[in-house]
Amino acid sequence: MKKTVVFALLMAFAFAPIPASATHISKPVVVEPKTEYILGEKVAIRGWVNYNEVPTADVLLNFKVTGHGGVLAERSFPSDDAGNFTFEFETRDLEPGRYDIIITSHCLEVHRQICTYQSQTLSINLQDGMVPGWIKNSAKWWSEGAISDSDFVQGIQYLIKNNIIVVSKVAQQETGPSQIPGWIKNSAKWWSEGRIPDSDFVSGIQYMVEKGIIRL
Length: 216
Hints:
Distance between the termini: 84 Å
Radius of gyration: 25 Å
Protein name: Blue (type 1) copper domain-containing protein
């Protein structure tokens, strides 16, 4: 009789419903998202998987890009060893306008029956030639020696302030006099003449600010 009671209790515990507090939650977190892009510029979305409030590796992520009434791209891959992810896609063949990027982080297989997964939607605006004309004029005058480095830097600072160029907070907080290598004047001249697109010029300036080649 005792054995029967013990067995019944074990079976009851084994098949007891799992309390709501045991449910796992998986959700993507986008870090410092950029929402304004130039046509032709590569979109890069970075973030991490918040799995029970902890960055978690090997969580399957799905990325879907929609716009102009259709799905333009879709990819799936797991988070890296640190629980981070980077999703990139090209815009050179797209039209200007708004696009939505839907990011879904799924559940680990071991938690499939007791897990809730969530999505995050990031909207971006793709523009054709989003750099104001006065900055292009400034680049031309600077390349010709008509204005000083500090005058040209004001244009770069405008692009950073308006999120046309996105750089880290560390790069923005560096102190010291403005320094711009002279060879960059060639790029500024070619850009002002329309020989290179806005996206190439902006990406180049962004890279050089991040690497400390240009100091603001």
